[in-house]
Prior knowledge:
Strand content of chain A: 25-35%
Structural class of chain A: alpha+beta
Number of helices of chain A: 2
Order of helices and strands of chain B: EHEEHEEHEE
Distance between the termini of chain A: 36 Å
Number of domains of chain B: 1
Order of helices and strands of chain A: EEHHEEE
Strand order of the largest sheet of chain A: 2-1-5-3-4
Helix content of chain A: 10-25%
CATH superfamily of chain B: Molybdopterin biosynthesis MoaE subunit
Radius of gyration of chain B: 17 Å
CATH architecture of chain A: Roll
Number of strands of chain A: 5
Number of strands of chain B: 7
Radius of gyration of chain A: 12 Å
CATH class of chain A: Alpha Beta
CATH superfamily of chain A: Beta-grasp domain
Strand content of chain B: 25-35%
Oligomer: heterodimer
CATH class of chain B: Alpha Beta
CATH topology of chain B: Aldehyde Oxidoreductase, domain 3
Amino acid sequence: MARIEFLGPIGKKPIEIDINNLKDLKKIFSNDDDIKEWLKICAVAVNDTITKTLDLKIEPNDKISLLPPVCGG
Amino acid sequence: MLELHDGSLHVEGILSRWYNDVKDKNFGAFIPFIGIVRDEKGIDGLSFDIYEPILKSWFDEWQERAKQEGAMLLMAHSRGDVKNHTSSYISAVLSPQRKVGLRLINDFVEDFKASAPIWKYDLIDGDRIYAKKRSMPLKGAGLLSEEK
């Protein structure tokens, strides 16, 4: 099961989901009204590297992080 | 060097320590930037969440870039609450000459604002409110959105 973490202000507890790639995750999230608005503005990291493709293969112990807009300093 | 501190930064202590650590390394310029929390829009202060693994890899990439120019970067940032008129952020560049350092500190701080995985909240009357309007989406944002 891949672990999904919702960082910063999203305020949602981590979940574990059985998926093969990020397309599967996109499909699952499309039915989740709590997270839909965040998805428009969140970047996605797989094992702490930000990704720009949905085709990435997800392994059972992978960590997927959703990163909302940032403002350091 | 990247360091994270709980609460406000002790500016004098950090700058003094950095200066003493580097003064004999033959850099001709030490250019610090210090961010101070302003009293505005009724806030009592700011608060920060940080995602350390990606912050560290982002910083390491910048350190490598600086190294190629014979320079070095230092950065300190706060976690948690930081009251008005105290500091949450210090970065500094050490470089052989002034011009390289001034360019690097500008580029580094600009990219810090756009890329460092840090989330800011306004502290108002005991509430911690995400500063969404002042925040910037990271590159690649919206990947999982149906609208993309």
